[in-house]
Amino acid sequence: MNPHKIQDVEVTPVQVPLGQEFQGSHYVMTHRCAIITKVVTEDGLVGEIYNGDDMANLADIVRLIRRILAPLVIGRDIFEVSVLWHAMMETSTSDILSDRRIGLQAVACVESAIFDAMGKAVGLPLHRLWGARHQRLPVMVIGGYYPPGRTGKTDERAIGAEIDQYRSLDINACKFKVGGRSPEIDAERVSIARQAAGDEFQIAVDANQGWTREEALRFVELTQALNILWFEEPCKWTYDKAAMRDLRMKTNIPITAGQSELSAAGCIELMTSGAIDICNFDASWSGGSHAWLRVARAAEALGLRMAHHEEAQISAQLLGSVATSTFVEVFLPERDPIFYGLIANRHRFEQGYYAIPQGPGWGVEVDHDFVARYRLD
User: Fold this and answer.
1) Cβ atoms within 10 A of the Cβ of 121, count?
2) pLDDT digits over 268-295, tens only?
3) Which of 132, 313, 330, 342 is positioned for an S-S bond with 128, CB 3.0–4.6 A?
4) CA diameter of the chain
């Protein structure tokens, strides 16, 4: 018996309804979902973690793991993870007629579970295997969503109450949604947030590719006095690289992007073309930790900062291994009940920081009662 040989792969989709709609610039969220992937070795070692939030493709991702990727990795040693990753990528993303996003997310799920098993096999958290640089990381909460409906006045009290929620969680930074209204209205909303939060609180903004060059520039002009930490995905996706480069040249605000890229090469092109100051890649959307770490090493070599889009259960270990890392991104509990409900051993935030889990692998213990309540199959 090879104690590190994969014997079984289990995959469980979960979906949790949200208590309200959350509107960004051009999208609406009503549910939070994830895929829990478990790898079991011949001697009973279990690697288990959850990834993703792609409700539209959830069933297809699960189907691909069960039918294609699980048979590919069963019988292989967990320490062959790099070889297995390349094989999974080739199998899942080479068909030009298929949706590569489905394959990339499926690969990330299986790779993440294998990495968890690796960490448990050697008794170390993954950030130590990848080169420990941090023991804790600052936290940024993603918020500032628009109320339901596309019209209506800015609700100053609601924005102030949301800032109070951040503080009640002991979080001192937020990423505020913009790009879904005019630059003037969104500048007013961010100004209200700044007044409520005070000068020491850190505020970034995220347009989710909502504006033209001219609109993004106008917003920056209107918010110069608000000390914005960075401006994420300011411009429309059809010409975002050139538009972000232009915005960087015309303003002094750091520009951030990367979550909408599907490959490491795409993120590296953002950096080398002068389009961004901070790369906000997503391992769960883009093929897993192998891809993210490639981008992180390139960012460090180029003197740029590295972030991770959401996914705190994954991002803490990745960012903890990178010298130029930024924030662990989270949501309020009502926006992400999975992070607050599925992780049985979740650390609390303290003075604006999140301690990187020190348990082996991802350091995450899954609450299986939570899974039983919200599993889809």
Assistant:
1) 18
2) 999 999 999 999 999 999 999 999 999 9
3) 132
4) 66
